[in-house]
Design goal:
This protein is mainly β and about 550 residues long. The chain folds into three domains: about 35-185, Immunoglobulin-like; about 205-360, no CATH class; about 380-540, Immunoglobulin-like, CATH 2.60.40. Helices cover about 5% and strands about 30% of the residues. The protein is built from three helices and 39 strands. A seven-stranded mixed β-sheet has the order 8-9-7-2-1-12-13, with no helix packed on it. It has a seven-stranded mixed β-sheet with strand order 21-22-20-15-14-25-26, with no helix packed on it. A seven-stranded mixed β-sheet has the order 34-35-33-28-27-38-39, with no helix packed on it. The longest helix is centred in the first third of the chain and has 20 residues, at about 1-20. The radius of gyration is 34 Å and the shape is globular. The termini are far apart. The relative contact order is 0.08.
């Protein structure tokens, strides 16, 4: 009996030692995936041109949908599906959210992700996927054609759906009363990427963009009585309440300005001094009246500051409160001490996005419009109109030293970039011209040989100087070709590239072989409208002005 008991004890000890050598481990539980259904459609907007959340490269404010994650774990919605036709959408109306970058498509707990709808790139092509850290869906939201925004799982089961947004007013959003709440409201003040609230945000007034020298009409906001394009400053209010700047002070000497450098905003016309909620206010600097005097105060509903903006002498635009010591807002510096150096003529300095913190130089300023990087169309230079014999002064562009009205050719650029014709060749013998018939455009004065974006360049043919000699080259800022245009002996005006064999552009023929026969005296041959394909003979020539078709 004792022997049996001893064997049992020995067995227990042996078994215990085995357990110690190989401890028992509980199997790991599979990781718990974050609950996708904690993501809801939280707010959306079908028209956002005023103070837009996102302005596309084409310059348009885009539609957007905000998603909110009310869960306790971050959720990646990359790879899920979305539609603007609601839960009953068909395949053609459903778009997959890009899963190329989880860092962009992951919504943190209690966080937001705003997806942009209907953006276009600089070529007008729909933007899709992840671009520059933002998520794009290649269709806009329409309050007249679409139904509701729906979010689907990868297996196409519904996660969440907004209410129908038919007839949603422009510049208003549809959103949950508070984040993830059941009740939905129309908001006068949208809050993309921020908590929903029906309480308007306080005014947030900032200097948004400015220009110190305007050369191009499309960059101008105000042309004064002297015919000059005045400097301008754009103020933006990203808040939900309007703000009247009456009683505040403007200065061009930046935040270190003294009282002597400041200009009081008068309180006589609130419409000229109030920055509306989500809107803009333009202020004009350095304009002159008929007498050449600086314009100051409120005139015709515009507030004028009686000094221009000078990168060589001024610093930055600032607005001070009534005490003249408390700074309200200040622009980035536009002088040599600024991060971009002295601001160049015809370029603006502005915030990258309306109301944002970062600044940049814009080649194409946007006065009274959303700040946007606009990629201009390439130059498109064409011969636009020409005249072979000028008899009437109103049809003339240049009167030479002999008192004769010289022949002229008008060049137009319908593109968005200027083009210098220096190094090219002009001829009156058309596209079949030889090198002996060509005249080189010199490179000594770009202002006389450059066709500005959206503008014109006049070239004079057959003018004579005081000695009766043909004028050739650049004289007093005009390019002269030393031969007249003759319908009986010449063919057409053409421009060749530097190799003298590659045709750049040619006019319609103005000789007997042309569709209109020999061009009559005192009439011009031109495109029906600027840059058009069709040509016609004009009874009323328009040198250096738009072709009117008359």
């Amino acid at each position: 009996m004792k022997k049996i008991f001893s064997i049992i004890i020995s067995s227990i000890i042996l078994f215990s030692s085995c357990i110690k050598d190989e401890p028992f481990v509980l199997p790991e539980e599979p990781p718990v995936e974050p609950e996708v259904k904690s993501v809801v459609v939280n707010e959306l907007m079908t028209k956002n041109e005023v103070n837009p959340y996102y302005t596309d490269p084409a310059g348009n404010g885009c539609d957007w949908v905000e998603f909110y994650n009310h869960g306790a774990e971050a959720v990646d919605i990359g790879g899920l599906f979305i539609s603007d036709k609601g839960k009953d959408a068909t395949d053609v109306d459903i778009y997959q959210i890009s899963d190329a970058n989880a860092a962009i498509t992951t919504i943190p707990a209690k966080g937001f992700l705003t997806i942009i709808f209907g953006a276009s790139d600089a070529n007008g092509v729909d933007m899709e996927g992840i671009v520059d850290g933002k998520v794009f869906i290649p269709t806009g939201l329409s309050s007249t054609k679409d139904i509701a925004v729906a979010l689907f799982e990868a297996d196409m089961s519904l996660i969440d759906e907004s209410p129908a947004f038919a007839d949603l007013e422009v510049e208003k959003s549809l959103g949950r009363e508070t984040d993830a709440a059941e009740n939905w409201l129309v908001f006068d003040v949208p809050t993309p990427n921020a908590s929903n609230s029906d309480q308007p945000l306080p005014a947030n007034v900032l200097i948004n963009e400015l220009i110190t020298k305007v050369l191009t009409e499309s960059h101008s906001y105000y042309t004064d009585a002297q015919g000059d394009f005045a400097d301008w400053v754009e103020i933006v209010n990203t808040g939900g309440m309007p703000m009247d700047l009456a009683g505040y002070y403007f200065t061009d000497k930046g935040e270190e300005a003294t009282a002597d450098d400041m200009y009081l905003v008068p309180d006589t016309d609130a419409s000229a001094t109030t920055v509306p909620a989500g809107g803009r206010l333009m202020v004009v600097f350095g304009a002159a009246n008929d007498a050449g005097e600086d314009m100051e105060g409120i005139i015709d509903g515009i507030y004028f500051v009686p000094t221009g903006l000078k990168p060589s002498g001024d610093i930055a635009v600032a607005i001070f409160e009534a005490d003249q010591t408390t700074l309200l807002t200040v622009s980035e510096k536009f002088n040599a001490d600024g991060p971009f150096g002295e601001l160049e003529d015809d370029k603006s300095l502005g915030r990258v996005d309306d109301g944002g913190n970062e600044w940049q130089i814009f080649d194409i300023p946007t006065p009274n419009e959303a700040n946007s990087i606009i990629i201009p169309e390439p130059a498109n230079v064409l011969i636009n109109e020409l005249m072979t014999k000028v008899l009437t002064e109103s049809h003339s562009y240049y009167t030479d030293a002999q008192g004769d009205f010289a022949d002229w050719v008008e060049i137009v650029n319908t593109g968005g970039m200027p083009m210098d014709l220096a190094g090219y060749y002009f001829t009156d013998k058309g596209e079949e011209a030889t090198a002996d018939d060509m005249y080189l455009v010199p490179d000594t004065d770009a202002t006389a040989t450059t066709v500005p974006a959206g503008g014109k360049l006049m070239v004079v043919f057959g003018a004579a100087n005081e000695a009766g000699e043909d004028m050739e080259g650049i004289i007093d800022g005009i390019y002269f070709v030393p031969t007249g245009l003759k319908p009986s002996g010449d063919v057409a005006v053409a421009i060749f590239e530097a190799d003298q064999s590659t045709l750049f552009i040619a006019s319609e023929k103005f000789n007997a072989d042309g569709p209109f026969g020999e061009l009559e005296d005192d009439k011009s041959l031109g495109r029906t409208t600027d840059g058009a394909d069709d040509w016609k003979v004009f009874d009323l020539p328009t040198p250096n002005a738009a072709n009117t078709g008359k």
